[in-house]
Amino acid sequence: MMIKIKYILVLFLIAFQLKAQKVVRYDLYVRDTIVNFSGKEKRAIAVNGQIPMPTLTFTEGDIAEIYVHNELKKETTSMHWHGLFLPNKEDGVPYLTQMPIEPGTTHKYTFPIIQNGTYWYHSHSGLQEQIGLYGLFIINKKKDDSTIRKGIDDLPTIPVILSEWSDLKPENIQRMLHNANDWFAIKKGTTQSYGEALKQGHFSTKVTNEWKRMNAMDVSDVYYEKFLINGQNEQQFSDLKPGSKVRLRIANGGASSYFWLTYGGGKITVVASDGNDVEPVEVDRLIIAVSETYDVVVTIPEDHKSFAFLATAEDRTGSASLFLGNGEKQPVHHLSKLKYFEGMKMMNDMMKMNGEMNDMGMNMSLNKMDMNAVMYPEISGEDENSKPKIDHSNHNMEGMKMESDSTETSEIVTLNYGMLKSPFKTNLPKDAPVKELRFTLSGNMNRYVWSLDNKVVSETDKILIKKGENVRIVLYNGSMMRHPMHLHGHDFRILNEHGDYSPLKNVIDIMPMETDTIEFQANADGDWFFHCHILYHMMAGMGRIFSYENSAPNPLIHHPEMAFKMLKMDDRMFHFMAENDFATNGNDGEAMFSNTRWSIGTEWRLGYNDKHGYETETHIGRYIGKNQWLMPFIGFDWRYRKMGMDEQEQNLFGQKNTKDNRSVFSAGLEYTLPMLIKAQVEVYTDGNVRLQFERKDIPLSQRLRMNLMWNTDKEYMAGLKYIVARNFGITTHYDSDMGIGFGVNLNY
Known about the structure:
Layout: H1 2-20, E1 23-35, E2 42-47, E3 56-59, E4 63-70, E5 80-82, E6 106-112, E7 117-122, E8 134-140, E9 157-165, H2 170-178, H3 183-188, H4 194-199, H5 203-211, E10 226-229, E11 234-237, E12 245-252, E13 259-263, E14 268-273, E15 276-283, E16 285-288, E17 293-299, E18 305-313, E19 319-324, E20 328-329, H6 340-350, H7 377-380, E21 434-444, E22 449-452, E23 463-465, E24 470-477, E25 483-487, E26 492-494, E27 504-505, E28 507-510, E29 515-521, E30 527-532, H8 535-540, E31 543-548, H9 560-567, H10 569-572, E32 575-583, E33 586-594, E34 598-606, E35 614-622, E36 630-640, E37 649-650, E38 656-657, E39 662-673, E40 677-684, E41 689-699, E42 704-711, E43 716-725, E44 728-735, E45 739-747
Parallel strand pairs: 1-4, 3-8, 9-12, 11-19, 18-20, 21-24, 23-31
Antiparallel strand pairs: 1-2, 4-6, 5-7, 7-8, 9-10, 12-17, 13-16, 13-18, 14-15, 14-17, 18-19, 21-22, 24-29, 25-28, 25-30, 26-27, 26-29, 30-31, 32-33, 32-45, 33-34, 34-35, 35-36, 36-39, 37-38, 39-40, 40-41, 41-42, 42-43, 43-44, 44-45
């Protein structure tokens, strides 16, 4: 009888709990739309008719019920709930945790809300995040939550989501990045040409840079026409009382842009990061990485003034403003342009001739030393609106002290991860087994290949972990870009000097040369993505998949092997480029398909008469090594040129060579030498050998490029191209076969 009563009581309690849980439903209608952020009408994707997507608001303890209606005509879609703890099948990664949502269909996501904080959500399908599919996901604490902080959690809040907009299709952006197109640098004014180097007294810096086989540096990849805050370049909140405080719940929903956050009305108090409370810390500024969230408290100005909360792109090409207060808008102090040649000098010191990073004798961690700080005018004292407090003339950083953020020495306090402290202990179970993993973040800026340990997702298997173990990951950034690494479905501890109170996050921004350690308790099931959240880095393959051993099959993935193959297609994608010169002395050009490892390219030269003839060379090669400086290839050479009776050419090796209807196969090697010179040795089936040296796109000025070529067949070429527009240029060149010519260049 007692057992029966206990059983009834248990059922009653379960029923009561379920009834007490509030089901909160949202319907999200995904549709094509037209937007105009920059003066041009462009295609985008909206949800419920708006960009960004609607802010979804819950209270811890709710049950989320979200219906995604895909009303796109041809595209599949998905939704990932960034930073949330949920069943694996609800995580929203196509081909990993679910199948894509087909056009004209509806997918239901449902999961309990078991946490609180500021999060966001976005499409995990292709590049849709870049064109509108991002929005805030806010979870409030329960009214009786014991962790409620007076003066913080009870403040009025303003949701803030940052993003950027490009008039280019994201697929075109991706293609241009992989083809080392420097149009974005031209638009941003960051080409770092030889002419600019001479003007600024950095000619030797430029030469050293190219001697080490590096292109011009940048702190971001893409030029954007507009930067947005809540879908606008400027927004004002006037219904705020002077002297009061307000909590900004900020998410960086950008595809590739970091943002500096500053406030014209005074200090910024950081109170949470990635949904997790931290002990309040007061700073002058902070940088928010792609996909990070921060909660900050600011004070509304007195005397009927309105100051800007400013989000400035890391490359300082633009900003977005949120004016707080009901008074007159105060002038905005925009951050000055970066000193790129100073950064290039620093980069030269960091890089060895073999492409690896120098051991600077420093324990780089926790963002304490921003290695780009030397580029900031407000730090170096060259900003007229700041006080000169530090001298960065000596860029040999050997032995540099790391006890404090470099920016603090100029009386500008910048947030770093060492400052973040959890208000409660975050220790993992001490008796649990530990699985330690080490990854080097690797990249090739010239070909835009991003990887872990020089392997992309498609080249690796899933990493098996066991439920109940502590997973520790040591991350070293051996690339020249910073990377925001995000783990799905889990929070991890960032180990810092606060020990037991190390902060919890789901994104860690790792700067060049930096080493950080994170750890998390394996307490879930299924497959979870771990990747760089710069969209174009992720699509290039920078990530891994953690898979729990003995997990039950995912009911949404009916053919796991096929799905995993589809998942790997992203970084195996081939990217196309082509250009052609229409000149007075002939027609020449090239076309190429390439992906992470392979290149299929052809070049052609077409004369206007038999004497000039025609030629096409095709090479299929595979890049080898971390830096991809070496490419073995096979090829085919087909050429025709009408020469004199019985006339034959002779190369520098004494080998005779006729160009009359010559068709031969070849095998060879291409290697990138210092100064970015491509050295190529090729052996043909007729026994001939050719050695060739070529350098393309030497930046003489912001828009002027030089091409040079010479080979042992006694062929040589020199040319100039002035870049007029993204796909158009004016050219002149001298060719040993065709003479001098003038024309136009069309490229894609």
